Amino acid sequence: HSHTHAHQHIYPAQIGEGMPYLEFALHSELVNKMRLRGVNALFDLRIQVSIGPSMTVAIATGTAMSLAALPVPHELAGLHPHTRSSAETSPLESSIRDKLSSVSRAHRDMLRSYLEDDETSEGAGAGGA
To answer: Which residues pair with 79 in a beta bridge?
Structure first.
């Protein structure tokens, strides 16, 4: 019985060594999700890390939005069809990539349209004053 508990000890040095990798992975996920949704700002970011004997879990929550003062995010890397040959991708991968690309493009187009409408209304308001 004590033998099973010996393998479940969590050593602070091991946790410390893994934290930079966890932070990098979490940052990459957040940036990719923001690009997919076409947003360019994140507020009230909260990160919760739970460390168990065999797994570490990180959950990040925040409020994402698009700010006109910041550039529109670029499309997710790897969504372009020419990044891999068709022989290397399965039909399921192609379908998922196409759907993600479509959603990402729609969000960016909606943001650009909104920004153009906002600039047009500002110009009309300034000219009438």
So the answer is: none
> Would you mind telling me the total number of residues written for the chain in this entry?
129
Q: In the 8-state DSSP scheme, what is residue 64?
A: E
Lookup: tokens for 102: 């479509």
- Closest by Cα among 69, 61, 72 to 37: 72
CA dist 64 and 37 (Å) reads 9
Helix 12-37 × helix 91-128 angle, to 10°: 60
Cα–Cα separations (whole angstroms), residue 77 to 16, 26, 53, 65, 118: 30, 17, 34, 21, 29
Whether this prediction's pTM lies above 0.85 is answered by: no
Give the integer Cα–Cα distance in Å for 63 and 2: 45
Task: Read off the tokens for 73.
Answer: 């995010």
Read off φ and ψ for residue 86, nearest 5 degrees.
-65, -25
pLDDT digits (tens, 9 = 90+) for 97-114: 788 878 877 877 877 787
